[in-house]
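#random but structural
TW: two for the price of one
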Amino acid sequence: MAKGTMRYWAAAKAAAGTHEEPYDAGTLAAALTAATSRDGRGDEFRRVVARSSFLIDGDPVGSRPHESVELPEGGVVEVLPPFAGG
């Protein structure tokens, strides 16, 4: 297990009710499961996360399965929902 920070942007921030929170997980999938299972998180947060892309310490996750993406100790996961405009 690694400990780090998850940062939420735009719609993810609004749906989470916070800009950032800690993670304690070995993989991106485990961190997202924990985040979406927190008390007070509803369906909107789960929908936003499902549509989001992710950066880990600035590197894009891309289409890799989230179960295969290991999280680093002290890392930062950025949750980026789709943005409108240019």
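TW: number two ↓
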Amino acid sequence: MRASEGRALGLLAGVALDGVFGDPRRGHPVALFGRAAGAAERRVYGDSRARGVLYAAALVGGVAAGGVAVERVARGDVARVGVTALATWAVLGGTSLGREGLAMARFLEAGDVENARRRLSHLCARDPARMDADGLARATVESVAENTSDAAVAPLMWGAVAGVPGLLAYRAVNTLDAMVGYRSARYERFGWAAARLDDVANWVPARLTGLLTVACAPRTDAWRVLRRDGGEHPSPNAGRCEAAFAGALGVRLGGTNSYGGRVERRPEMGDGRAPEVADVRRAVRLSRAVTVCAAVVCAGAAWWRRA
């Protein structure tokens, strides 16, 4: 078996493991990395871009090097498929994303706005205190759309391109961005490198997510809205995912968001009505379809590589 074929089979096996088991409940590798990154930050933090560059490079480079070592140690067809499958399972979050979306749907369908507000923190960092049911529905749909790329499409693409090192390095980049990439007073300079690295790592996956959303939702306005509105979002990547979802679901996304007292006004995407509670389940179904499609595309790309 060629290495590329083992990589493709490992990616598909990892997607299957994520579909059956979701994220490990204890000892999740991403959580362990996050704790290590937090400890490293306490030691090296400084209000400078240079320190942030060294911090991000050391952590991401170390994880990538570990992935290279794992692939070299794994000898034989079964071992190669196995380590790729386990790495894929460890970094994928598609199933957990869908579960969180459905949890929000159940609370909102039951009229339990208070619990829905508390649960929203599992999906995004917005302040839910003043959100009504429709506002929570919009936040959930937008988060599911954006995170379909981060949680599923991007790791699969980097796994197809670079195997275990690509899988692990991508998740390290994404985790560091979540930890230090916010534009707060503390991380304005120190988190700059992590944020820019995440933008670069997600540039192609976000656009692939938009195209796969169009493919999974034929006979909708997804392509038109993606082309027209995808570049209007302040993020270079999130807008592609949200615009495609808006067109596919026939809703209008964007508007005013609050993040711990900081208010952002984002351009609206799509021509439909505002999202409603019923749209949350539709967004989760679309996200799952895009994830499956991404798995097939990325595994196929890996299979045909001459490696």
